[in-house]
Design brief:
Chain lengths: ~300, ~140
C-alpha cells in the first residue's frame, strides 16, 4: 500500500535540531522578547507545509489541536497581508502561540513590499507583548527591511533547498548567518545572487516530511483559494471591470438606481464573477450622461409647468 | 623581528614588544632543536650548546613572570631545576629532559595566550540562540 511516512524516529515530522531550536524561540517569547522565524525558498518548495508542521508542533506543546485549514476559518495561517492583523487578533483570542504570514503572491503588487515591511515593523513594535511567534514565508528574505535586522527580530532562517513528494531538505541559519547572506547578496553579481546561501555555513541541515494526504489537500484548497481571489482581482484590474456596487459608489447613487438605469439603457454585462455582473468601465461615463439627461429633463418639465 | 632602531618600536607598548621577543625566542629555539634533531638522527655527534643557549633566552624572557606567579614550593623547584639544567649543567643534558623543558615553556606561553590558537568560544553551533549570543546579538 502506498502510505506516506509522516514522522521520523524522533517522533516529529522534521529532523532533530529544529524542534530544539523552536523550543528556544518559545523560551524567548516567555521572556517577552520578539521572535520571528523566516522560511524562504523558491515557489513550490514547501514553505507553507513546513510552517504548518512547525505550528502543529507548537500547538501540540500548548495542548492545542492542529492548525485549522478551513477556507472560512484559518486564524493561524494568514494568506496575504490584508488578513494578517485580523488573523493575529484571532490567534491571540484563541490562545495560540504561533501565527504564519504566507505572502501568497502578495509581492506581485506594486508597493506591496514597502507596505509589508511597514506592517511587520509595526507588528513587532506593537504586539511584542502578545507573546506570539511569527513565522514569515517568503520566496526570498532579502526583501525584508534592514530595520528588522537592526532590531534583531528575525532569529532563524530556514532556507528550503530541495523538495520531492515525500520530503524536503532545508538549511538553517542564525541571525549572524542571515546578515552574512545579505552581505553576499549585495556583493554578488546579478545572475549569481542565489549563490549567497552557499557562501555561508548553515548552523544545521535538516529534512521535513510532507503532510498527510488530507492535510495536503486542505492546504492546497486553502492556498489556491487565496490565490484565486488574487487572480480574480488581477483579472478585474486588467480588464477594467466594475460591479454594480462600485459603479454606485463612484456615482454617489444607490445600487437600485444603478440597476434601473442599466436596465433602461439596456447595457449588457461583460462577464460574471462570483455570480456578480461585471461591466466595462465605460458604463460610468454612460451613466453620468444619463444622469445629466435626467437632470435636464426635470429642469425642462419645471419650466413648462411654470 | 623587533627592530629597536625603528621609531615605531619606541611608540609600541612594551608588553607587545615582549610578546614579540618571546615568539622570536621560541622560533629561534625551534630552529636550533630542528638542527640538533637533524644532526643526531643522522648519527653525527653534535652538542646541545646552541639549543640550550636559545632555550635559555626563551626562559629568561619569562623569568620575572615565573618568579612572580609560581609561589608554590613544587613550582619553584621546577623553575630552579630548569635554570640549573639550562645554565649551570656541564655537558649535554638528557634528551628527554630537554623535551620536558620545551614542553614546559610551550605550555607557559599557551597559558599566557601568546600562542593560543583556540581562543574562539566553543558552543553548540546547531543551537541557533547560542550562535546568536556568541555573535553578540541580544
Amino acid at each position: 500500500m502506498n502510505t506516506r511516512k509522516l514522522l521520523y524516529a524522533n517522533g516529529l515530522p522534521f529532523t532533530d535540531p529544529l524542534g530544539r531550536n523552536i523550543d528556544k524561540q518559545l523560551e524567548r517569547l516567555d521572556n517577552k522578547k520578539a521572535s520571528c522565524i523566516i522560511i524562504d525558498g523558491a515557489i513550490g518548495m514547501g514553505k507553507t507545509t513546513l510552517a504548518k508542521l512547525v505550528m502543529d508542533y507548537i500547538n501540540g506543546k500548548n495542548n492545542k489541536g492542529p492548525v485549522l485549514l478551513n477556507i472560512k476559518q484559518h486564524p493561524q495561517l494568514s494568506l496575504g497581508g490584508k488578513e494578517f492583523t485580523s488573523c493575529f487578533r484571532e490567534t491571540y483570542r484563541l490562545g495560540y502561540k504561533v501565527i504564519t504570514y504566507d505572502e501568497a503572491g502578495d509581492f506581485n503588487r506594486r508597493g506591496a513590499i514597502r507596505a509589508f515591511n511597514q506592517m511587520i515593523n509595526r507588528l513587532f513594535e506593537t504586539y511584542r507583548g502578545f507573546r506570539i511567534l511569527v513565522i514569515i514565508c517568503l520566496p526570498t528574505f532579502h526583501i525584508l527591511d534592514s530595520q528588522l535586522f537592526t532590531n534583531e527580530i528575525p532569529r532563524m532562517l530556514i532556507h528550503i533547498t530541495q523538495r520531492n513528494n515525500k520530503y524536503a531538505n532545508f538549511k538553517t541559519y542564525s541571525l549572524s548567518g542571515m546578515n552574512w547572506i545579505r552581505y553576499w547578496y549585495d556583493k554578488l553579481p546579478l545572475g549569481a545572487k542565489h549563490k549567497c546561501y552557499g557562501k555561508v555555513m548553515p548552523n544545521f541541515h535538516g529534512h521535513f516530511l510532507n503532510l498527510s494526504k488530507e492535510d495536503d489537500k486542505a492546504l492546497d484548497i486553502l492556498s489556491t483559494h487565496g490565490k484565486k481571489n488574487l487572480l480574480k482581482k488581477t483579472e478585474k484590474e486588467l480588464k477594467g471591470l466594475v460591479s454594480y456596487t462600485e459603479v454606485a459608489e463612484k456615482l454617489g447613487k444607490s445600487v437600485v438606481w444603478v440597476r434601473q438605469a442599466v436596465y433602461k439603457l439596456k447595457i449588457k454585462h461583460k462577464s460574471m464573477m462570483d455570480s456578480r455582473k461585471m461591466f466595462d468601465k465605460d458604463i460610468i461615463d454612460r451613466l453620468i450622461d444619463y444622469q445629466e439627461e435626467k437632470k435636464a429633463e426635470v429642469k425642462r418639465e419645471r419650466i413648462e409647468v411654470r | 623581528m623587533v627592530n629597536f632602531n625603528n621609531d615605531n618600536t619606541v611608540s609600541t607598548p612594551a608588553a607587545n614588544i615582549v610578546k614579540l621577543l618571546i615568539i622570536e625566542a621560541r622560533y629561534n629555539s625551534f630552529l636550533a632543536i630542528e638542527e640538533y634533531n637533524n644532526k643526531i638522527s643522522c648519527g653525527v655527534s653534535f652538542n646541545q650548546a646552541k639549543v640550550r643557549a636559545r632555550l635559555g633566552t626563551w626562559f629568561l624572557e619569562h623569568q620575572a613572570y615565573l618568579d612572580r606567579t609560581f609561589t608554590e614550593e613544587k613550582d619553584k623547584q621546577d623553575i630552579i631545576n630548569i635554570k640549573k639544567d639550562l645554565f649551570f649543567h656541564k655537558g649535554d643534558i638528557d634528551y628527554d629532559r630537554l623535551l620536558e623543558i620545551i614542553v614546559y615553556l610551550n605550555d607557559l606561553i599557551d597559558k599566557l595566550k601568546i600562542t593560543k590558537l583556540d581562543t574562539k568560544k566553543q558552543y553548540d553551533t546547531t543551537d541557533i540562540e547560542e550562535d546568536n549570543k556568541a555573535n553578540e546579538y541580544s
